[in-house]
Amino acid sequence: MVGVYGIKTSVVVFVVFLASVGLALWAASGEDILGQIAAVSAMQVGLLLALSLANYLFRALRWQLYIGALGLHLPPLTIFRHYFGGFALTMTPARMGELVRLRWIARETGARAERLAPLILVDRAGDLASTGLLLAIALAFGATGLAGGLPVAALALILALIATRPGLFRALVVGAYRLCGLKPRWFVRARRAASALAVFSAPRVVVLALILGGIGWMAEGYAFHLLLGWMGADLPMWTAISIFLFAMLTGGATGMPGGVGGAEAAMVALLALQGVPLEVAIPATAIIRVVTLWFAIGLGIVIFPFAEGLATGAKNALENG
User: Fold this and answer.
1) How far apart are CA 288 and CA 296, in angstroms?
2) pTM tops 0.85, yes or no
3) What is the dihedral of CA 44, 294, 22, 229, to 10 degrees?
4) 89 and which of 37, 59, 96, 211 could share a cystine (Cβ 3.0–4.6 Å)?
């Protein structure tokens, strides 16, 4: 039922996304924009999709690293099935895709929900750390004209540090409770979650997670750089990557599923600041979002039924065994 709801939500949001792009085409010089889109060949789109797939694969490997840190053992194909299948629910308001991955792991391993819950937090922290660090590197390598880029990168890294350092997280939870004194059960659960993060703070886990996440997000940023070049906006590589990462971070900060709306607005605005005309900025933004966000959701919709069915079968086998 959750899966059907998530897929319907994704379809509705995708229709709204396409309608918004169409409105932007109409408001700007529509013929010029359509010409820019038509100029991107099928082979080029295939390369963009391959780079996006590389991002998903490297982040799935990071997910496998985190599961191993918990002492759980699942075959790599099973982990990939869970990770990709969860993309189907990206557009649900409460990020149900992340929760359903935990449900599948619980069904196939018998692990308790309390043990698995920190996976969501550490995976989010891994993305923040990777994108924040890459954005800082992009700025260091000469990306200019990105107002607020360094503070955003610093904030992402700080939040990632808090989420992966059990002692610091626990201290902040205790301090927050002392300040407000409300909802003690919530704070008890948060303190337990902080303690459960200890297994992810080992140097090997932290370093490998940064490397895997960094390679993944770098692949999508490079895809954006290639796309802009093909469309005639020959921005330096690190500038294109910094715009892409900044848009992803600011889109995520809006709280909207998939960063829809915020990420696109930030990307178009930042490209305009770099002198990229709207007839290039709008289609480039639309294409990169289709081959990154919506490609992931499409893969998730295809894989979700198999992941759900196999996980249900595994649960029945555990119960009957």
Assistant:
1) 12
2) no
3) -30
4) 96
Opening angle at CA 127, ends 184 and 62, nearest 5: 105
DSSP string, 175-212: HHHHHH---HHHHHHHHHHHHHGGGG-SHHHHHHHHHH
Residue closest to 304 by CA, chosen among 13, 15, 9, 83: 83
The token pair at 279 is 């007839």
Model pLDDT for residues 263-308, shown as the tens digit of each residue? 888 899 899 989 998 888 988 998 999 999 999 999 999 999 999 9
Residue 198 tokens, joined: 């200890």
Tokens 């010409």 belong to residue = 35
**In Å, how far are 2, 96, 133, 292, 304 from 61, measured between CA atoms?**
26, 20, 19, 18, 19
DSSP letter at 276? -
Tell which residue, 52, 217, 235, has the closest CA to residue 133: 217
